[in-house]
Amino acid sequence: MYNITRNEASKILNVSTRSIDRYIKSWKLRTEKRWKIIYINDQDINNIKKWDKTKQHIIINNKIEDKTNENKVIVNDKKEDYIYKELINTIKEKDKKIEKLIIELSNSKQLLQNSISLIDYKKNQYLLEQKEKNIKIELEKEINKKEIQIYKEKNMNKLLIFISFILLITTILVWFSNI
């Protein structure tokens, strides 16, 4: 679990926060960032606490260098070389798996950020349906207005035709009556 802050970790391990930062950069401590605060894994703190600081083993070119406070001894045993090569290979495999997981995690975070909640989706869907209903009502009103206007124009045209026909007949009658 990630419950310990950098300051707490430095007090537990009796080191500076800068040393904690170095441990983090060298991947000796796993971290999780929540808001702006960095939290450190409890197990990693316990492992470093148990770690013997007087003796450090460093692998350099498949050789083991045993550092103590007084002298340096280089051990080069074939059995140990094989073990460390095997460990390096397993570490590389695990690093590849971690990279894949990190990529999958970032992709899922992207999907989560790009997705919307179900409530927002339902709300937007309801608003869209309401908007469609309003548009249909407005269209029906416009269609009714146009139909009424067309009906009036037809009646007006019929009336004009009728009046023009009567005028024509009267002009013809007047003309014939004058002859």
Describe the 3D structure.
By secondary structure, the protein is an alpha+beta fold. Among the domains are: 1-51; 120-179. 69% of the residues lie in helices and 15% in strands. The protein has a three-stranded antiparallel beta sheet with strand order 1-3-2. Helix 1 packs across helix 2 (17-25). The longest helix has 61 residues, at 118-178. The N and C termini lie far apart (120 Å). The relative contact order is 0.04.
Q: Strand-and-helix sequence, N→C?
A: EHHEEHEEEHH
* Poorly predicted residue ranges: 57-77
- Helix count, per DSSP? 5
Radius of gyration: 44 Å
Mean model confidence by pLDDT: 80
Structural class: alpha+beta
Q: How many runs of DSSP E, i.e. beta strands? A: 6
End-to-end CA span = 120 Å
- Share in β-strands: 15-25%
Q: Describe the global form.
A: rod-shaped
Helix share, percent: 55-70%
Biggest sheet strand line-up: 1-3-2
Largest sheet: 3 strands, antiparallel
Which terms would index this structure?
179 residues, three-stranded antiparallel beta sheet, 69% helix
Short characterization:
This protein is an alpha+beta fold and 179 residues long. The protein has helices at residues 6-13, 17-25, 42-50, 78-114, 118-178; strands spanning 2-5, 31-34, 37-41, 56-60, 63-67, 72-75.
Give the helices and strands, then pairings:
Elements: E1 2-5, H1 6-13, H2 17-25, E2 31-34, E3 37-41, H3 42-50, E4 56-60, E5 63-67, E6 72-75, H4 78-114, H5 118-178
Antiparallel strand pairs: 1-3, 2-3, 4-5, 5-6
Helix pairs in contact: 1-2
